[in-house]
Amino acid sequence: MIAADYFDGRSSRRHAARLELRGDTVMVEGEFGSRSAALAAVEICTGTDRTPSTIRFADGAICEIRDSAAWTAELAGAGIGVGAVASAERHWHWALAALAGAVLIVAAIYAYALPWIARQLAPAIPQAATQAISDAVLQGLDARLLAPSKTSPQRQQEIAARVAALAGPGDRLPPHRLLFRAGPTLGANAFALPGGDVVVLDELLALARRDEDVVAVVAHELGHLRHHHGMRQLLQSAVVSFVVGVYLGDVSTVVAGLTTLLLESRYSREFELEADAYAGRLLLPTPASLEPLIDMLLRLDAAHAKSRAADRGGLFGVGDLLSSHPDTAGRVSALRAMKR
Ligand SMILES: [Zn+2]
Question: Where do the structural domains in the chain lie, given as residue ranges?
Fold first, then answer.
């Protein structure tokens, strides 16, 4: 028998009581009468230096235990651990709910709020800033991964002229500049930098069967430019790495790594579909319609599947054309649906 005070939960009156554990049942008795409840049906809270251990019944009645040590010993005798952990286990469903709530909030911020903010913000970033970022990235790429193009200036001009001709009457392409490079380690690829430079690699020209194929790929990159995907991606990743950096207490490294981040992040499926849809609208009125784009998607997928097998790892993502898309089939069928 352990001395306790019993409150019935309706009045503040204190009743002297005695407490006992019988098997899985808690018994409380005193001049108020007696009651019992299954251990699983009561909330056991371990006291601190200042607060007593308590048992809370489902109807709100509370038993305050005067001799905490004796009660703990009694519980331990019944094989029930008491302490912070045990108390947390008693409240595990609340802890779990709180955790799930926190995870949901963070996930919602990441999945909805952040992309939304980036979408509003990206077009408002001054062209000078966007261009400065693009120039820095291009310099880094030229130093590390790209080589001068072997494509003749005539062919470069022809392709540029075909791209310019994509704009229908009263329609303007996003500001852009075509740059030709060789990218031996990058394979068949093209990408758009946020400032408007669309880099086309010789390896892509080698994969293409005709100029229309190259134009189709550039049209896809123009879609990324039209929707500011590069800057949106950069903003989102920057916020994420900034938050992670603050959390880990290492912001400077994160800021220094922004370029790498820009290169290594990939466009989401949503961005790719959006760029495809834009390209689709440009290409539909052309004689070859969407076939060159569909054809190139399939050929690039096959080419990159081969190089993935040889493990070149991550192609870069800013405008990373069609680098490693598990979803080529889905994109192709979306384009086919546009034709109907
Ligand atoms: Zn893309």
Answer: 2-90, 125-339
